[in-house]
């Protein structure tokens, strides 16, 4: 997340919220962002958006005046500028009041009204990027949703490429051929076709035609009114989906687009409908494994012959609602403050416990030191009078043997003289 459908819904959001809104002044960047400055400033301009795969392009168009006497001020931009965005892991757009600016708003466009509003590119993890005077990345293939015919031709005509020697689950993330497919989409597509994730991509795609054989396959325009899937009978729909992976790479993302704000809603962050739509990705009972690139693939059944050896499945985690990304309501603030208070209390309790333990250790050390000092004093003072007697006895004992020896010697002398 976000993938092709989310970026397209983001472009629809910008077009809806910015329709008829006049922006003014320079485009401002946050101080912490390492992305380039956008050298655009205008007294009045419009913003429109369009998506292509995993990219969104904003077009900043200065409003031209019919009055010939009005001259463009120094430093003002006269020509339109395209700014191409790549969302990374957490990027999205949001229009708010200036005093309600999101915390991670890294690029800002200000409206010409009172009170002022701001269109922001919000990116909490800062993996997203933008390119002033940018174009679609040439290394990316045609869009899976809105350039379907070109997308099919691009894949089928390059099946001899060594990239298709890899497992199908890894090739589906190759934006050179599958521009817009991401982690959850590859899991859902392979699951519906019962294709093991770790089989050769060429084996799966071999035999598919560059033109969709289904009669209900029609090009889908990049517009709100035309994002619905083509109407066809149930029998034709089943025929179109069975075995044709390229067809599902086109239709499955459009299903997410048709969920509308229920699939991607930066204002309410309600993903319950989207979660109910998922059949495989992060669904209980499904298996998971890391591919050769370290990305987790969700699947059912046998993984396939090309599965990484000794690959361990990551620990299963229950899907949690990521309200922190987009929720700025008072209720959320109260929960966040309560959490902070509980954390502070826990820290204080831990610090207090450490202090008590430290004081106890100090008192213990003092008590032991005092005891040792007392014992030493007794050991030094108590034997003092005894030591004198002992020394005297030692002295007498050392003298007595000498005197006794002299007496024995004198007796022997007398005996010998007799």
Automatic annotation (TrEMBL):
<keyword id="KW-0511">Multifunctional enzyme</keyword>
<dbReference type="GO" id="GO:0005694">
    <property type="term" value="C:chromosome"/>
</dbReference>
<dbReference type="GO" id="GO:0003677">
    <property type="term" value="F:DNA binding"/>
</dbReference>
<keyword id="KW-0238">DNA-binding</keyword>
<dbReference type="InterPro" id="IPR010979">
    <property type="entry name" value="Ribosomal_uS13-like_H2TH"/>
</dbReference>
<dbReference type="Pfam" id="PF09292">
    <property type="entry name" value="Neil1-DNA_bind"/>
</dbReference>
<dbReference type="GO" id="GO:0006284">
    <property type="term" value="P:base-excision repair"/>
</dbReference>
<protein>
    <recommendedName>
        <fullName>Endonuclease 8-like 1</fullName>
    </recommendedName>
</protein>
<dbReference type="Pfam" id="PF01149">
    <property type="entry name" value="Fapy_DNA_glyco"/>
</dbReference>
<feature type="region of interest" description="Disordered">
    <location>
        <begin position="299"/>
        <end position="418"/>
    </location>
</feature>
<dbReference type="InterPro" id="IPR015371">
    <property type="entry name" value="Endonuclease-VIII_DNA-bd"/>
</dbReference>
<dbReference type="GO" id="GO:0003906">
    <property type="term" value="F:DNA-(apurinic or apyrimidinic site) endonuclease activity"/>
</dbReference>
<dbReference type="GO" id="GO:0019104">
    <property type="term" value="F:DNA N-glycosylase activity"/>
</dbReference>
<keyword id="KW-0234">DNA repair</keyword>
<comment type="function">
    <text>Involved in base excision repair of DNA damaged by oxidation or by mutagenic agents. Acts as a DNA glycosylase that recognizes and removes damaged bases. Has a preference for oxidized pyrimidines, such as thymine glycol, formamidopyrimidine (Fapy) and 5-hydroxyuracil. Has marginal activity towards 8-oxoguanine. Has AP (apurinic/apyrimidinic) lyase activity and introduces nicks in the DNA strand. Cleaves the DNA backbone by beta-delta elimination to generate a single-strand break at the site of the removed base with both 3'- and 5'-phosphates.</text>
</comment>
<dbReference type="GO" id="GO:0005634">
    <property type="term" value="C:nucleus"/>
</dbReference>
<feature type="compositionally biased region" description="Basic and acidic residues">
    <location>
        <begin position="321"/>
        <end position="353"/>
    </location>
</feature>
<dbReference type="GO" id="GO:0016829">
    <property type="term" value="F:lyase activity"/>
</dbReference>
<dbReference type="InterPro" id="IPR035937">
    <property type="entry name" value="FPG_N"/>
</dbReference>
<keyword id="KW-0206">Cytoskeleton</keyword>
<dbReference type="InterPro" id="IPR012319">
    <property type="entry name" value="FPG_cat"/>
</dbReference>
<keyword id="KW-0326">Glycosidase</keyword>
<feature type="domain" description="Formamidopyrimidine-DNA glycosylase catalytic">
    <location>
        <begin position="2"/>
        <end position="128"/>
    </location>
</feature>
<keyword id="KW-0378">Hydrolase</keyword>
<keyword id="KW-0158">Chromosome</keyword>
<keyword id="KW-0227">DNA damage</keyword>
<dbReference type="GO" id="GO:0005813">
    <property type="term" value="C:centrosome"/>
</dbReference>
<keyword id="KW-0963">Cytoplasm</keyword>
<keyword id="KW-0539">Nucleus</keyword>
<feature type="compositionally biased region" description="Basic residues">
    <location>
        <begin position="354"/>
        <end position="374"/>
    </location>
</feature>
<dbReference type="GO" id="GO:0008270">
    <property type="term" value="F:zinc ion binding"/>
</dbReference>
<keyword id="KW-0456">Lyase</keyword>
């Amino acid at each position: 997340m976000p993938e092709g459908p989310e970026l397209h819904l983001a472009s629809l959001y910008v077009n809806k919220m910015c329709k008829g809104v006049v922006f003014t002044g320079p485009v401002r960047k946050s101080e912490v962002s390492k992305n380039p400055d956008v050298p655009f400033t205008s007294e009045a301009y419009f913003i429109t958006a369009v998506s292509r795969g995993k990219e969104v392009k904003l077009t900043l168009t200065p409003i031209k005046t019919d009055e010939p006497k009005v001259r463009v001020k120094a430093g003002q931009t006269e020509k339109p500028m395209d700014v191409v965005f790549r969302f990374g892991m957490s990027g999205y757009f949001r229009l708010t009041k200036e005093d309600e600016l999101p915390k991670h708003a890294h690029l800002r466009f200000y409206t010409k009204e009172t009170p002022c509003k701001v269109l922001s590119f919000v990116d909490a993890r800062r993996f997203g990027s933008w390119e002033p005077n940018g174009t679609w990345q040439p290394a990316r293939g045609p869009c899976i949703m809105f350039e379907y015919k070109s997308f099919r031709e691009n894949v089928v005509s390059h099946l001899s490429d060594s990239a298709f020697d890899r497992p199908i689950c890894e090739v589906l993330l190759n934006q050179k051929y599958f521009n817009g497919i991401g982690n959850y989409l590859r899991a859902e597509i392979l699951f519906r076709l019962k294709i093991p994730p770790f089989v050769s991509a060429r084996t799966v795609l071999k035999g598919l035609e560059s033109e969709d054989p289904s009669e209900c396959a029609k090009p889908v325009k990049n517009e709100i009114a035309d994002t619905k899937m083509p109407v066809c009978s149930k029998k034709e729909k089943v025929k179109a989906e069975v075995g044709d992976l390229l067809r599902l790479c086109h239709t499955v993302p459009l299903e997410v687009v048709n969920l509308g704000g229920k699939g991607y809603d930066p204002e309410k962050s309600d993903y319950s409908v989207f979660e109910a739509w998922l059949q495989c990705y992060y669904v209980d009972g499904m298996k998971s494994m890391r591919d050769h690139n370290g990305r987790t693939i969700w699947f059912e059944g046998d993984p396939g012959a090309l599965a990484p050896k000794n690959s361990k499945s990551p620990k299963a985690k229950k899907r949690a609602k990521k309200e922190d990304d987009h929720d700025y309501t008072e209720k959320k603030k109260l929960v966040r403050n309560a959490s902070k208070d509980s954390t502070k209390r826990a820290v204080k309790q831990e610090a207090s416990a450490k202090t008590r333990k430290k004081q106890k250790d100090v008192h213990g050390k003092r008590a032991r030191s005092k005891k040792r000092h007392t014992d030493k004093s007794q050991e030094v003072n108590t034997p003092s009078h005894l030591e004198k007697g002992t020394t005297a006895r030692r002295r007498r004992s050392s003298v007595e043997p000498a005197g006794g020896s002299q007496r024995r010697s004198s007796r022997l002398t007398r005996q010998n003289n007799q």
